[in-house]
Design goal:
The chain is of the alpha+beta class. It has 2 domains: 103 residues; 165 residues, Rod shape-determining protein MreC, domain 1 (Thrombin, subunit H). Helix content is 39%, strand content 26%. The protein has 4 helices and 12 strands. Strands 1-2-5-4-3-12 form a 6-stranded antiparallel barrel. It has a 6-stranded antiparallel beta barrel with strand order 6-7-8-11-10-9. A hairpin with a 2-residue loop joins strand 3 and strand 4. Helix 1 crosses helix 2. The longest helix is centred in the N-terminal third of the chain and has 81 residues. It is rod-shaped. The chain starts with 10 loop residues before the first helix and ends with a helix.
């Protein structure tokens, strides 16, 4: 078997040849100028496109860097503007809340003037049962503020309910829409007696039940004011409960039943007035 011949030129000889070639070309360029012109052309063909490519890449990198810097500035500006927008939204919410609170204060003041014969304490609602309606809730005033059980509670345009129990700095209120509530009432224009009974299912329609209305002359019409009666043992007389919606004759042909629209928005209560005069105390005095 024949041995394969490998022809290999050492690297040092290649470098030496290239170095000699460079020296010869430099000398020729110095003495004749011909090689210099030739080398210049060769450099133009070889190095100029390479340099242009490097410049283009460098320009592209600088452009991307500038774009990235602009994007960073834009993002920072956007975050600053978003922070300002968030602050304005919060400020607007605070202003709207203050406006609502002012409206509540104005309503309570008007209500206070409407029942100026009674002593009252303003209170905030701090807790309520689960659900959409304020059928029972807790206020932030109690025995330390002179609040006791059976004191009447008002808000909006009329009667909310009655205090059922109180602690040193809290009290529980049962409103007239609660299923356990039963208020002796009367038609304001005729003094015909009736009972207003709580019904949470009916309250979903924005109404309260009225029963045992004595209206022998059929004078009770839609829109009539229904107020607390003089025969109630706990509620002061004449506090507005609501407005007559509709009534129909009962099966006994003696009384009527129906519904009334409450004078109070039992879905959006925040503040109330507690009448600190018990009915028995007022009657005795």
């Amino acid at each position: 078997m024949k041995k394969k011949n490998n022809y290999f030129i050492p690297t040092k000889y290649i470098f030496a040849a290239l170095a000699a070639l460079c020296i010869v070309m430099m000398f020729a360029s110095y003495t004749t100028g011909f090689a210099g012109e030739t080398l210049g052309k060769m450099s133009g063909y070889v190095f100029v496109p390479f340099e242009m490519g490097i410049n283009n890449i460098g320009g592209w990198i600088r452009e991307k860097k500038d774009n990235l810097a602009d994007l960073t500035v834009a993002q920072a500006k956007n975050e600053e503007l978003q922070a300002q927008v968030d602050e304005l939204i919060m400020e607007n919410s605070r202003l709207m809340q203050s406006q609502y609170r002012l409206q509540e204060f104005e309503e309570l003041y008007a209500l206070d003037q409407g029942y100026e014969q009674f002593n009252k304490v303003a209170a905030n609602i701090i807790a309520t049962d689960s659900g959409n309606w304020f059928n029972t809730f807790v206020i932030d005033k109690g025995k330390n503020d002179g609040i006791e059980a059976d004191m009447n509670v008002i808000a909006g345009s009329g009667l909310v309910g009655i205090v059922t129990k109180s602690g040193d700095n809290w009290a529980q209120v049962r409103s007239v829409i609660d299923d356990m509530s039963n208020v002796s009432a009367q038609v304001l224009s005729t003094s015909d007696l009736c009972f207003v009974k709580g019904d949470l299912q009916l309250m979903d329609q924005g109404l309260i039940r009225i029963e045992e209305l004595k209206d022998p002359n059929d004078l009770a019409i839609q829109g009539e004011k229904i107020v607390t009666s003089h025969v109630s043992d706990k509620y002061h007389e004449g506090i507005l409960i609501g407005y007559l919606n509709e009534v129909s004759l009962d099966s006994n042909n003696l009384t009527k039943s129906g519904t009334i629209t409450p004078a109070v928005d039992f879905e959006h209560l925040h503040m109330v007035l507690v009448i600190t005069d018990l009915k028995q105390t007022v009657e005795e005095s």
